Every structure is written in C-alpha cells, then in structure tokens.
Amino acid sequence: MKLILIGQGGHSRVVEETADQLNIEVIGYLDDKYSFFDLENDKYIGPIHSVPKLIDLYSDIKFLISIGNNVVRKRIVERLNLSDTYYLTLIHPTAVISRSAEIGAGTVVMAQSIVQTNAKIGQHVIINTGSVIEHDNHLGDFVHLSPNATLTGGVSIEEGAHVGAGATVIPNVGIGSWSVVGAGATVINNVPNKCTAVGVPAKIKVKEDDTFVQHQ
C-alpha cells in the first residue's frame, strides 16, 4: 500500500509517524501551497488536484486528509469526490479498539486513545491522543476530538463538531453539528447546532451577527 497525505502541516507529521509505526509508506504530500506536481527527495509533491495523476500511477494508492480543520476536510472530500475505498483508516498501534466498534473511512485514531463497545465513528474523523470514547457513542463525519477529550456512555456528536482538549461530556448528552466544546469544559446539557460550550459546567453560547450570546 502507498499512502498520500493531503495537507502538510503539524497534524500531517503526527499522521505520518503513525503510518510509519504501521509500516505504511507515505510516498508524498498534496497541498495547495504547491503550484506544480513533482518528485522531490523521493516524495511526490503537488497541489490537491494532482490526485488523479497518482491514481493513474499506482493501483494500490490510498489517501488521508491530514488537516485538523473540520470545514476544510469536508470541502476537500467534496471537491475530490473519490470513492470511500481510496481513503485509509489509520489506527495507532497503542490505541485500544473494541471489536464491536465501527470506524469510517479516512478516520485517524491517535496514540493511547480508547474506543469502547458499540461505538460508531463516522468518516474523516480525528480522534486525537489519549481520547476516550466510551460505549454506545455515535460520532458523525468530520468530527474532531482534541487530546484527552472524554466522551462517557451514550454520547452523540454530530457532523463537524469539535471537542476541545481535556473536555468531558457526561452520559447521553448530544453535541450538535459544527458546534465547539472548549478545552477543559464539562458538558452536562445538550449543545445545539453551531454553538460554543465553555466552562465547568459548560455554558452554551449561540452565535448571532458574529458575536456570541449566552443561551438560556
């Protein structure tokens, strides 16, 4: 298998080291900071629209969008319009994954993370270092859990939501699509779509006219 990383920043370096520990060869990087497709130091580089060239070159090619921003990951997936079979699911060898868990294409599970019984994780999700996903969690596509986030049992995280470092979500709580849970927050109530929840216990703020107001 040959792996191409889409995006070349800090997150991609962590992804590449994870791939290396699994003996998966990263043969190049696609990023729109490059203006042309080339081979440099035995690695392919080029803009994102170079994907078809690499598919033509290799029958066993896989891609992984190694960009932390949820919105950008979704835009790239829509732009490329590839079959799910072209995306690699990458799981660090120190992660603990239940046999009954389901993990979608293009998702990355980082070191020391735990995914428990009957958890269902969507596509192009980032499960960062030391995160805990307890039993019966449901995570939509393009979700991002920052390091040491803890989702207790029965939590639902909708598409594109971001749970900050060290945050905790209590059992059976839902986080709406494209919402943000701040670092260190403790979420004890449902968070609506496109909101921010911060503090202990978390207070919910709704975005109105580019400002945030506390949600009653």
UniProtKB/TrEMBL annotation:
Substrate binds at residue 68. Residues 2-80 form the PglD N-terminal domain. It comes from the Bacteria. Pfam families: Hexapep (PF00132), PglD_N (PF17836). Acetyl-CoA binds at residue 144. Coiled coil: none annotated. CDD domains: LbH_AT_putative. One of its GO terms (molecular function) is transferase activity. InterPro entries: AcTrfase_PglD-like (IPR020019), Hexapep (IPR001451), Hexapep_transf_CS (IPR018357), PglD_N (IPR041561), Trans_hexapeptide_repeat (IPR050179), Trimer_LpxA-like_sf (IPR011004). The active site is at residue 135. The record marks 136 as: Increases basicity of active site His. SUPFAM superfamilies: Trimeric LpxA-like enzymes. Keywords: Repeat, Transferase. PANTHER family: ACETYLTRANSFERASE, UDP-N-ACETYLBACILLOSAMINE N-ACETYLTRANSFERASE. This is Acetyltransferase.
